[in-house]
């Protein structure tokens, strides 16, 4: 399913704060996840084919970003009661299988997803050293069934531009993926479901 986010955050908006647990219950805050030059916030889950498609490439991109002083954090906002395959034990396995060495957190109330305007998995938000939004859009143009390999080219270009001090990209393609699995009655008003 393709979901085009109606972002509630606009370029220049400051990242909403959060403190969320990882799969072991350890709390991680936005301030702990950030690097000196910025933060990449990704909304994802374990079972979505779009996330699976780019999981290894995200690991590689996050390593390059970390070397440039940009932290990465992934947030799972799905309804874990309805989708237990996205639960903590599976999160640990998924992160290990794809070499995710960044925090993978649980947004049990789904409030963080709402504050960011996240609509699908995966959904990407890149913030600069001031935690001002620089980019919200797709990882790249690859999709699970279009025969292309995920390389993160769109997001990498945004990172490069941000580090060079250029303005946010004028033309951005929204993320595509599975819709966030909202709890009954929790879907935000802007969500197209």
Structure description:
- By secondary structure, this protein is α/β, with parallel strands linked by helices.
- The protein has five helices and nine strands, in the order E-E-H-E-H-E-H-E-H-E-E-E-H-E.
- It has helices at 30-33, 49-67, 88-97, 111-116, 153-164; strands at 19-21, 27-29, 38-43, 70-76, 104-106, 120-121, 123-127, 133-137, 178-179.
- The strands form three sheets. Strands 5-4-3-7-8 form a five-stranded mixed sheet. A two-stranded antiparallel ribbon has the order 1-2.
- The longest helix is centred in the first third of the chain and has 19 residues, at 49-67.
- The termini are close together.
- Residues 1-6 have low confidence and may be disordered.
List keywords for this structure.
alpha/beta, two-stranded antiparallel ribbon, globular, 193 residues, five-stranded mixed β-sheet, 9 strands
What's the helix and strand layout?
Layout lengths: L18 E3 L5 E3 H4 L4 E6 L5 H19 L2 E7 L11 H10 L6 E3 L4 H6 L3 E2 L1 E5 L5 E5 L15 H12 L13 E2 L14
Parallel strand pairs: 3-4, 4-5
Antiparallel strand pairs: 1-2, 3-7, 6-9, 7-8
Strand order of the largest sheet: 5-4-3-7-8
**Radius of gyration using CA atoms only:** 15 Å
In terms of per-residue confidence, which ranges show pLDDT below 50 for 5 or more consecutive residues? 1-6
The count of strands amounts to 9
Mean pLDDT across all amino acids: 93
Largest sheet: 5 strands, mixed
Instruction: Report how far apart the termini are.
Output: 11 Å
